[in-house]
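[step 3/7] inverse_fold.run input=structure_tokens len=402
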């Protein structure tokens, strides 16, 4: 009998737990260690922050999902690995410390925002790293929206996270425009590079910027934040940007405590360095994937930290582990980038395809964006459940009282 322990039930970890839970022999055991009770799809955290997320239909409870899909949910946070004993050190929600033995360990704990040690950012900015932070953001935004006055929001970072958040907040504010008690939101999207979506093709950045400007988002390019205080930010050239609420969405890294955990090798962003098989370089029984892993590709590139890549690596590793338990060799993970899709509000998205040669935009592309989430839902819960959820959501939108 083998026990496979997966740490982190996000885009990658939940898929592996579900796929393995449904396919390993009954004598093998699959355990998902995750500190949260419910799974939320991280690329939709900005919707939680803007109050537009449907938690009834678009989240799932790990405990009951595990019972139906052949894995056990252990609600705890991993804090350390004792590799010589092949066990994890865990902290339960009540603070108790426990240990859990593994035969194979998969680390998929994701990433957190990188504030690049900017003075005051940690204390005075909101982050969208966890569902609790996203909910807390909504509580602050909700109060702001009800103030009936002109209010400002600073968002640092015009990558996918910052841009999607700015667009969602702008759309919510626009919807409330005729309400005499609603605030008018001035949204500042602040980016150190010379364009939004700096890691995407130029055409995509231009289209995204145009759309955001139509939503009245104030885009500040070539603007580096030097320090943050309560209700204001100071740029590197001394300009003050006042705001009622401030978000930090510039860059990501794996958490500091992951660096060299249990003697495993990690890089400058604290990501665990793995082989192309997704096994860590120092220990063939420990695997890592998703945003917390540095996954090499042929030609010296690295798999990008995005949901699509996390999902594909998860499906690959699940198959690999099943084969490995049957004594077969591990196969390398080859990532074929299917392009990038960024949602700008609920009815518009922009995407790149064909190795960034083609840029598409519009309502249909927004459906494509939704498809990525639906494919994740299909992997974790099956085609039947995914289809039911789509139908229920459509009906709910049609018949829900305003
Ligand atoms: C607002 C926003 C918008 C985004 N938009 C896009 C987009 O449009 N397209 C795209 O491709 N990507 C997008 N991303 C990035 C995408 O969400 C990530 O690349 C993806 O979720 C990474 O998957 P993962 O499984 O590695 O980590 P995650 O999905 O972050 O999951 C990590 C899990 O590990 C758990 N965990 C953390 N620490 C521990 C611990 N110590 N012990 C146990 N469990 C732990 C967490 O609770 C979480 O459930 C967006 C991200 C954000 C925040």
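[step 3/7] decode complete -> sequence:
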């Amino acid at each position: 009998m083998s026990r496979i322990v997966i740490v982190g039930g996000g885009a990658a970890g939940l898929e592996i737990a579900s796929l393995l839970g449904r396919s390993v022999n009954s004598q093998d055991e699959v355990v998902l260690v995750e500190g949260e009770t419910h799974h939320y799809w991280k690329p939709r955290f900005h919707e939680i922050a803007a109050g537009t997320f449907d938690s009834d239909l678009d989240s799932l409870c790990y405990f009951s999902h595990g019972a139906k899909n052949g894995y056990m949910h252990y609600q705890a946070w991993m804090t350390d690995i004792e590799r010589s004993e092949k066990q994890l050190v865990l902290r339960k929600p009540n603070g108790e410390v426990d240990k859990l033995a593994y035969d194979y360990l998969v680390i998929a704990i994701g990433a957190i925002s990188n504030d690049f040690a900017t003075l005051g950012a940690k204390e005075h900015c909101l982050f969208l790293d966890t569902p609790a932070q996203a909910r807390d953001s909504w509580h602050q935004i909700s109060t702001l929206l009800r103030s009936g006055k002109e209010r400002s929001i600073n968002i640092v970072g015009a990558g996918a996270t910052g841009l999607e958040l700015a667009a969602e907040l702008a759309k919510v504010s626009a919807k409330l425009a005729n309400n005499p008690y609603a605030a008018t939101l001035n949204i500042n999207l602040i980016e150190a590079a010379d364009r939004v979506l700096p890691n995407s093709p130029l055409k995509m950045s231009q289209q995204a910027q145009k759309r955001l400007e139509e939503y009245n988002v104030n885009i500040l390019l070539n603007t580096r934040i030097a320090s943050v205080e309560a209700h204001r930010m100071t740029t590197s050239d001394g300009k003050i940007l006042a705001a009622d609420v401030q978000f930090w969405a510039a860059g990501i890294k794996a958490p500091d405590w992951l660096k060299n955990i249990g003697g495993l090798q990690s890089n400058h962003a604290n990501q665990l360095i793995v082989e192309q098989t997704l096994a860590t370089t120092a220990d063939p029984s420990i695997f890592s994937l998703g945003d917390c892993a540095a996954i090499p590709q042929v030609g010296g590139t690295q798999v990008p930290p995005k949901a699509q890549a996390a999902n594909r690596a998860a499906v690959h590793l699940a198959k690999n582990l099943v084969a490995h338990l049957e004594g077969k060799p591990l196969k390398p993970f080859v990532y074929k980038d299917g392009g990038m899709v960024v949602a700008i509000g609920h009815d518009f998205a922009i995407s790149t395809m064909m190795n960034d040669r083609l840029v598409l935009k519009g309502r249909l592309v927004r459906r494509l964006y939704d498809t990525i989430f639906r494919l994740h839902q299909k992997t974790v819960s099956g085609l039947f459940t995914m289809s039911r959820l789509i139908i229920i959501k459509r009906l709910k939108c049609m018949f829900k009282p305003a």
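[step 4/7] annotate
The first helix runs from residue 13 to 23.
The first strand starts at residue 3 and ends at 7.
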